[in-house]
Design goal:
Shape: globular
Bound molecules: NADP nicotinamide-adenine-dinucleotide phosphate
Distance between the termini: 41 Å
Structural class: alpha/beta
Strand order of the largest sheet: 4-5-6-7-8-9-10-11
Radius of gyration: 19 Å
Strand content: 5-15%
Number of strands: 11
Largest sheet: 8 strands, parallel
Helix content: 25-40%
């Protein structure tokens, strides 16, 4: 289903410095299939949804829905990414710290798809922050992925206690971008103050901020800031995985009565409803599954549309409770780990 039929590509390519409209709730963000979505996006946001992709703030296109591989074992990665590519995903999100970049690269190479058809995203871990260290981290990831160029490279976390190191790492990403080694650069888990400090000290506005976002924790203020700056919000744990796979969390988004009721009304599953909720609000999503039927299920979200009331009902499930680590508390002492050379 086309997201923006009749919407000419290029209309929304914005000039530098043109700040997009703030979008902070469902009521102000029209559905992706509607004409009003095209109108609103052409007037405002600089990261926009086209037929089957978002256009990043530097013009690079990223598929609307990606496939995540956090917690996928190195042994399973080749098989599961192969399944995802078979189903139709054309974007894989991995990270140096997931230790499975090699499986991602192998799956892409064995898929028979042209390298240009698959969008490859990975992240530099905090142990490799610093200018030279981060350049070296690129080499390690590119080698494991078996690619010359990475489509999107992120800093995985800010290091608030060592922000100078974070900035040096981002400077290295800027260098890699200028050299054409990466097509776009971005950040992950950057909160409002981290983004503000980063923008003051560096030149390239991140193309993406990958953050925890699901019905129980959607970070509307941060998402609004991303949008205002032309940064695409990428939702991690988009179906709320962190609400049920993490010890100590027992209230699963998958069992939420509001979501299950909406799902039943569309003859869809709760996971599909949550993914649709992200897309209709202009967030890219990267669901993870190692189960073939769920890999396919999570990609089957382009044939229905949530109503404004349904989107608002899901928004209202916000708990304010973060599932992942508090970004302010991430330090190399607590979370550092050596990323192997090979
Ligand atoms: P998620 O995608 O919201 O949920 C994954 C969990 O849900 C897995 O336990 C999976 O189990 C299960 N699942 C998947 N599809 C399902 C379905 N249709 N029905 C029922 N259960 C389903 O959570 P996530 O893995 O935390 O996040 C997705 C991706 O975001 C990651 O893979 C990674 O790429 C990225 N991420 C980034 C960060 C960061 O700090 N930047 C942090 C976390 C995640 P099975 O695999 O057994 O099917």
């Amino acid at each position: 289903m086309p997201f923006c039929s009749g919407w000419e590509k290029g209309v929304i390519a914005r000039e530098q410095g043109d700040i997009g409209r703030v979008v902070d709730n469902a009521a102000t963000w029209p559905s992706i299939g509607s004409d009003s979505a095209c109108d609103a996006m052409s007037k405002g946001a600089r990261c926009c949804v086209t037929d089957n992709s978002f256009r990043l703030n530097n013009g690079v296109e990223i598929p609307t829905l990606g496939y995540g591989v956090f917690q996928t074992t190195p042994e399973d990665t080749l098989k599961t990414v192969a399944t995802a590519l078979d189903v139709g995903y054309r974007h894989v999100d991995t990270a140096a710290s997931y230790l499975n970049e090699r499986g991602v690269g192998d799956a892409i190479r064995l898929s028979g798809l042209d390298r240009s058809e698959v969008f490859v995203e990975t992240k530099v871990w905090i142990s490799d922050y610093g200018y030279d260290e981060t350049l070296h981290a690129f080499d390690k990831s590119a080698r494991k992925l078996g690619v010359d160029q990475i489509d999107l490279l992120l800093l995985h976390q800010p290091l608030p206690a060592e922000f100078d190191l974070t900035i040096s790492a981002y400077r290295a990403l800027e260098n890699l971008l200028a050299a054409g080694r990466v097509r776009a650069i971005g950040v992950s888990n950057f909160m409002v103050d981290h983004l503000t400090t980063l923008l003051e000290a560096t030149d390239v506005v991140p193309a993406v901020n990958q953050i925890e976002a699901h019905p129980y924790f959607r970070q509307p203020d941060l998402t609004a800031m991303n949008t205002e700056l032309g940064i695409l919000t990428q939702a991690w744990s988009p179906i709320g995985g962190i609400t049920f796979y993490r010890e100590g969390y027992d209230k699963s988004t998958l069992d939420d009565p509001t979501i299950t009721e909406i799902a039943a009304s569309h003859d869809k599953t709760p996971a599909q409803v949550m993914l649709r909720w992200h897309l209709q609000q202009g967030r890219q999503a990267i669901p993870k599954s190692t189960t073939p039927s769920r890999i396919a299920e999570n990609f089957d979200v382009f044939d229905f549309e949530l109503t404004t009331d349904q989107i608002a009902a899901i928004d209202s499930l916000e708990t304010g409770e973060r599932g992942g680590p508090e970004p302010a508390q991430v330090t190399r002492e607590a979370f550092g780990r050596v990323i192997p050379e090979d």
